[in-house]
Structure formats: C-alpha cells, structure tokens
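REQUEST FORM: STRUCTURE PREDICTION
Request ID: SP-0412
Submitted by: Lab K.M.
Chain count: 1
Length (residues): 601
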Amino acid sequence: MEQSIAPPHYKNLVSLFYEHAKERDEQPFLWFKENKAYWPISWSETSRRITAMARSLKSIGLEKGDRVVLVAENRPEWFIADLAIMAAGGITVPAYTTNTVENHQHVLNHSSAKGIIISTATLCKKALPAAEKALECKWAVTIDDIEPDDDLQIHNWEHLLAEGDKLEEDIEASAKQLTRSDIACLIYTSGTGGLPKGVMLSHGAILCNCEGAWDVLYHLGLGEETFLSFLPLSHAYEHTAGQFFPLLLAAQIYYGEGAEHLLRNMAEVKPTIMTAVPRLYESMYSRITRGLEKEKPLKRSLFYKAEALGRKKYQDPNSLNAFERFQDRILEKLVRDKLRLRFGGRLKAMVSGGAALNEDIGLFFHSLGLPILQGYGQTEAAPVIAVNRPGIIDMSTVGPELRGVKIKIAEDGEILAKGELLMSGYWNDQKYTDETIKDGWLYTGDIGELDAKGRLKITDRKKDIIVLSGGDNVSPARVEGELVHHPFIYQVMVYGNKRPHLTAVIVPTEDFLEQWGEASGIPGVLASVYDNPSLKISMAKSIDQINKQLSPLEKVRKFVVANEAFSIDNEMMTPTLKVRRHKVLEVYQDQLNALYPKPVK
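STATUS: Completed
RESULT:
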C-alpha cells in the first residue's frame, strides 16, 4: 500500500486546537441542534470560551494535575470543558451519563477529583449527590441553571465564562508548556469484567492515535471533513475518533441527538466519516431488511441483485462478466446511490469499533456501496490499534496495525501492541499496570493471528474463552455472532465453562415476539411470556437452524429465554453496548446451571 505524507506533529492537544482556531477564525466548527435546526459556533468563539473557562477554573482552585469529572451529553460544552480543563493544567475524567450515584461516587473517589462539571438538571440528580459525598470534591460547575446546594460550592457555567473574559492570564502561552507525555485524561473502562479502572492517557497517546487515523483517511482523500458525534464522548473510542481526530483535521463536528435519531441526523448533517459500534450497524441492517419486506417484488429483486454483485466483486474485483458489469453500473444508480442518500450522500467510509462486527453484516453494507472499515483497539491504547484500509479490506479481519503501532502475537496467541499510543498506566494501580504492560508491550487479553498481508484477525477474548469439561476450547464471540445474525434473535450470551456443552441466555426480537403472539393469541410481551413453553419451542427452531452451521462443540444444546432485554439501565450492557457477562450471570446463573444434568453423588 502506498505510503502517505506524515501529518503535522503537535506538542499537545490544546496547542493543536489554538493553532487551528487562529487559522480558521470565524469559520464554523461546533454545531448544535436547537428548535429543529443546526446552529454553528465558530472556531474563534470556541477559542474564547475555552480560554475564559480555563481562567475561571484556575481562579476557583484548579491546579496542575488536578482531576475534574465531566458529566454531559454530546454537545459543544463537552468539547469546551474538556479543552479548558486541559488548558488550565488539569486532567479530564469523563463519566457516563448513564452512571448511577454509586458509579459516580466510585469515579470521584478513585480519581480524587477536585471538581465536577455537569450539564443538565437531570444529570445533576445523580452526579451532585455523589459529589457531595466524595472525599476530595470541592466544587461543581453546572452548565444549565440549577438550585443552589448547601453542601457543595456550585458555580454557573455562563457566570464563569463571563468572569473568565475579565481575567488576563495568557492561557494559550501556559498551555504550550504541556508536553506529549503529560496526562490529558483519565478514562474509566466500561466495566465488562467488574469494577471500572482508570486509564491514564497522555496527550501523545491520543495524538499518536489521531495521526495514525490521518494516515487511513489520506487514502480515502483528505478534504473539508464533517463528523457526526453521537457515541458517548466519555468512551475512549468517541473521545479520540469523534472529537480529537476531527480536531486534527480541522473538521466540523455536529452533535447528534442520540442513536435513535441517527439516520435522520445523518441525512441532515451529511457526514463524510462515521464511527459507530457494531450494535448500531446491526440495528440499521435490521431496519433496512425489514423495510424491504414491505416493498414491491421488483424493488426487492433489484436491491438483492445489487448486493449479490457487490459481494461477488468483494471476493474478486475482476470476477464480473460483461453483462454483470453492465447490470452493476445500472444498479449503482438505482440502488446504491439511493441508499447512500439515506446516510447523507457524502460518506467516504463508516468505521466500526468497540466490539466484533458480524462479517456478513459488514459485507452487506460494503456490497451496497457503504464500505465499513472495521477496526480494533481498547481504552488502554487510546484506543485504536488496527483498522482496515481502502483497497485491502477483509471483513474477517480488523486490518493492519495503525501507523505508529507495532503488533505481535505471543506464543499463547495473545495480541500484544506497542507505541506512543499506550496508556501511561492505571490510576493508583501499579500492580495491574505491571501485569498489563510488560517490556513496553500492551498485553491486550485478546487472542488473534496475522494474515499474509499483516491484517489482524481477532479470534476471541482470552479470559472469555470457554473451556468445556472435555478440555476443548470454544469461542463464545463466534457462536454469539452467528446467533444474533438470525432475524429472531436480538441478544445472546453463551455459557458453558467447565461444562459438557454450550447453553445460552437468549433475548428474542420484537418481530419474533409479535409474530409468535399473533399465532398464539397472546400479547407478545417478553416480561409476560418468557417462560411460555410454546415460545421456547418456537425459539428452539431458530436455534436449530443456526446449530446446523456450527461445529458439534459450538452447538447450543439448551437455552434460557431472558425476561427482559440486556440494557444499560439493568447494567447488563455497557454504555457502548457490550454485554456485561458477569451481570447477566448474576441474574441467570441458577437457570443456566439447571440446564445441565446434576452430578451423580
């Protein structure tokens, strides 16, 4: 693959912003939606607000190295607060908006945060009680107006901006003292395996990641880029890919209204690059295929013909005969162009990360003219380690290593990564840091292999591999990927460690419940029918279909139907929509154990 010109090298994230702000001045930068329309904030206005807020944060006691927790939905103030904390010499500690009081208290106490910035009155209901009880938290800043609090010093966002404008400290000059090795943020892991850990990411780690991503975009064609930010900015994926990577490109950032409004926002914003997690691609796939069922036969036929030809080209670009090439050109206009318009019409590529993408779903979008670049990484690597590139896409892999990254496979198959992008360690946990980074290599905990073109293939999560009682290893990720691809299965968690065979917890789709309910004369409400024998018989037929495609060891022999979907609210999913296995097992362990024969005494 041709090498690109290296991107500009910046000293820190704050100086990167100020340089672009001077160049771009009154051009639009951050866009927010209000009264059903998007409105811009210019580079110069963003700069003014960052400077003013940084001055005010210092005036209320923020000192170099102090941690400040940030609790807000995706909005311009998130960017401004994040950069202001760093510009004042502090360390941002992003927190999920879905956190409970206990979650917030853990983050505040574990990070010894001096302050907290909260956006809305609704978020204050859980964040402020935690801040009041936190041992080191001295003050709070609220973006929206709220009632004063007797137990905590509360400052109003707009008031601090106004006061900061009156102060004269040269924030830009002091920010130049920050180096690439200084800690920029402390991002807490989503807690798939237990208590969240604080990952220290330096300015250099994030910049290294952005510079590597710049190299990927170079091969798609650099231009005036537009990003739609809708994944949680408290997660390392969106924090880097949806905030600082656009900053490196001097791109415009539009803040979305949430995943449920994604397609509408894409049509409005017309993004050039989109980042999302596999669950959202799965949801869009389901929505598109369900919509096709209602279309006329000719339209369905054209759509699936376009997909089939796209798949054939993916396998071998030279495989189409003359007639198929003619068909493909016609279908490009009749099918693919129309589908691209639903996604805004300007997408160069969609990036998938945060979890494994089902290969068939990735190929579905790719064959219809919406290429997905599947990547791989983790918070400890700021976060991207590898990503597919245009021209050498292989949906069964996560692509070659990012520029500035080295990957190798350990003897036991574990993926190791090295480079400036690695975390500086876990906050207040040297023991776990030493177990995770050895001799400069990050031990990812994932199992994988490299193909002849240097593309990385993830085969499983090391600690999630199921070892059956007969000693055989089974990948739960592969089995789960096959199961959720079935139109009647919405979510699944496979179980079976030290057991003779696999079992699973299954959440059926709403479509399945609706169809089954109509046929049975019973309302298809999961909470009411999950233990209905007839429903289990119908669901078993779907699982039997999938089992035919699996090896004997991978077959799911028995299953439990969940009484509710896995969600963030019931803590069975992380904010980035990954299943928390330990939380699912807390609820369903006894039922799963009951599916196995009792040992003979």
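NOTES: The chain has 20 helices and 26 strands.
Reviewed by: T.R.
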